[in-house]
Amino acid sequence: MKRVLCLYRVSTVGQVDHDDIPMQRIACRDYVATHPDWEIVDEISEKGVSGYKVSTNARDAIIEIKKKAIAREFDILLVFMFDRLGRREDETPFVVQWFVQQGIEVWSTREGEQRFDTHVDKLLNYIRFWQASGESEKTSIRVKTKHLQMIDDGHYRGGSVPYGYDLVHLGRTNKKNQPVRDLVINEDEAAVVREIFRLLTDQGYGTNRVANYLNEQGIKTKRDKTLWRATAVRALIENPIYIGYMHMGDKLSPRLEHLRILDDATFERCIATVKGRCTKLGDKMTVPARTDTRSLLSGLIFCADCGSRLTFSHNITRKKLSDGSVKEYERDCYRCYRKINARESCAGQSSYNADTINETVLYEVRRIFSTIRQKPEAALLEKAKEKHVSVNEVAYKQAEADYFEAHKQIEALEEQTIKYLTGENIVDIDIINSMMPKYREKLQKAKARMEKAKAKIDTDKNSEKDAEQEIADLLSWAEAFDEANNEAKHMIIARLVERIEIGRNYEIEIKFRISVEQYMQIAA
Length: 524
Prior knowledge:
alpha/beta; 49% helix
């Protein structure tokens, strides 16, 4: 008797319990029944494994069957159709050939036995899987095209429902007249989404801290049983569905206002905040890594001498008094660890009193907010818009002048080259050749600056929206700053201040972000 091993495979989990696996099993068993000298000794199923996307080297079933073939545990490998072995023309033909070389007969209930007696057999074997691969590619294209069409139509494509939404039948049906569900906002979950973005953006929470907070509050995930994790929080904040866009990769749907939970500014600011505190950025971090400490300026303060980021430290000093009692003195400070570890490499102090620095910075921040509050919002906005336009126009005019000047110089050099070739002058051609690349480079740079400035002028409307948002943010921070907790103050200062440098004798230089400097000039 010949021992038969049957392989059944389906590409999706949904096919496992319907027609596909049972159908393959019945067909293979019926086929074996027509061969009296065959008997089934093993059956292996692959559930939800693509024969096109997944390499045979990564398929556990194929690996297991190969081991059994080497151990001579069966004589015939039987499948419903040969494409159950795979659909990759660069791999599957050679897998079949490998089994035959091991003395294993490879059979299909539809195509019979695959032999390799002649070159024609090898060619037919390859063509079969080349065709199967092509069919998979066409299926993939059809599915992708359909999904892109669904995105364009603003329809839910399936998969996990985003947190903050529910699936509800709103009367829409598919081509088979079956009810199809659509996304609607779940108001309870939407409130949690807004809180997540607020904690990340305004309170300086990290994604781990947000996940822990949600778990402590007993807020359940969409799956109801699993705990929140940092990865889930990061995936949530990067989903454009919260500003009304469904997506498939980089492809976005038209704006769907009925699905919007957040405004664009909050969404973009949150992503910028999370990316800005990435530890891989080192000294280029634009957001404090932590705000859950006593420090108000950590992540923003640097040594003016060596440029190292200063580290917050809390000291407790104990002093024995004359009566024998011990008194504790607590002190917060910022330390320069380069100075501490290598004294000769830094001429600054090793530590600075935190309260002294904090008071200076807080005074400057309050002064800025006071100045801005004294100017009417409409006047601030109008001047901010004018500043956007005037800066772009000046940049364009300067680039245009540089472009024409470089172009003029190139024309002059070309004229001199022609005169040299016709013998009208005796200028050294090597000098002309050495000058030409320099002016061509100037021409290209000026052209690039012109295009950049022109693009900014063309997007003045967006600039105006940015100006409106910046003014709104500044006024909002100005109103909330004094009543805000330490974490919120830390984040507001981080948005205002780019860098604080401190040197010996507490010489402090505060470098504000460009937009703050601009609005200070506007408000003056």
